[in-house]
């Protein structure tokens, strides 16, 4: 089954939006298979955002990601990678559609609350980077 990596960034945790974000994924019908609150190391943040290493915002982005706790999650379900991107909305909250997490709750591109993997291959890389195999729980809702 397809899985994606989702992080509630420090601004989302600071603004007490953890439950709101989780609610949106749960009510959509996706299954939570990994969850942890983390104080992220600079090394992990730099590895995660390696593709943006040459961008002018890279240093500020890494500094922000390690500035306060973050919630790392893995969600599972059919088509979850693309669907999560839809639920999250455009990178810039100012142009993200109403009804999306960033469109409803986000403030600026540098404080856009949440990260979601942009493709299935990226999700596999990010899940392996953030979670050990034993931290993920394989289960199916049956109640
Ligand atoms: P995310 O989905 O985590 O992927 C890369 C992140 O870089 C993005 O969300 C934003 O938080 C950040 N980002 C992208 N563009 C800019 C920008 N112009 N200024 C600051 N941060 C940016």
Automatic annotation (TrEMBL):
Pfam families: NDK (PF00334)
UniProt cross-references to InterPro entries, sorted A to Z: NDK-like_dom, NDK-like_dom_sf, Nucleoside_diP_kinase, Nucleoside_diP_kinase_AS
Places the protein is found: Cytoplasm
Protein name: Nucleoside diphosphate kinase
Family listed: Belongs to the NDK family.
One GO CC term, this protein: cytoplasm
Matching SUPFAM superfamilies: Nucleoside diphosphate kinase, NDK
Residue intervals of the Nucleoside diphosphate kinase-like domain: 1-138
Catalytically driven reaction(s): a 2'-deoxyribonucleoside 5'-diphosphate + ATP = a 2'-deoxyribonucleoside 5'-triphosphate + ADP; a ribonucleoside 5'-diphosphate + ATP = a ribonucleoside 5'-triphosphate + ADP; dZDP + ATP = dZTP + ADP
Domain of life: Bacteria
PROSITE patterns xrefs: NDPK, NDPK_LIKE
E.C. number(s) listed in UniProt: 2.7.4.6
GO molecular function: ATP binding; metal ion binding; nucleoside diphosphate kinase activity
Required cofactor names: Mg(2+)
Annotated positions binding ATP: 9, 57, 85, 91, 102, 112
Enzyme class name: transferase
Subunit field text: Homotetramer.
Active site location: 115
Keywords: ATP-binding, Cytoplasm, Kinase, Magnesium, Metal-binding, Nucleotide metabolism, Nucleotide-binding, Phosphoprotein, Transferase
GO biological process, one term: GTP biosynthetic process
Function summary: (Microbial infection) Catalyzes the phosphorylation of dZDP to dZTP, when the bacterium is infected by a phage that produces the substrate for the synthesis of dZTP (2- amino-2'-deoxyadenosine 5'-triphosphate), which is then used by the phage as a DNA polymerase substrate.
């Amino acid at each position: 089954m397809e899985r994606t990596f989702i992080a509630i960034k420090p601004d989302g945790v600071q603004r007490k939006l953890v439950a709101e974000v989780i609610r949106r994924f749960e009510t959509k019908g996706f299954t939570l298979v990994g969850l942890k609150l983390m104080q992220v190391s600079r090394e992990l943040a730099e590895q995660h955002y390696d593709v943006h290493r040459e961008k002018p915002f890279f240093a500020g982005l890494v500094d922000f990601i390690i500035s306060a706790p973050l919630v790392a999650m893995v969600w599972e379900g059919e088509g979850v990678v693309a669907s999560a991107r839809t639920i999250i909305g455009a990178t810039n909250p100012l142009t993200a559609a109403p009804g999306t997490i960033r469109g409803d709750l986000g403030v600026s591109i540098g404080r856009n609350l949440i990260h979601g993997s942009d493709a299935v291959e990226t999700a596999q890389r990010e899940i392996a980077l953030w979670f050990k195999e034993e931290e993920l729980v394989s289960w199916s809702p049956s109640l």
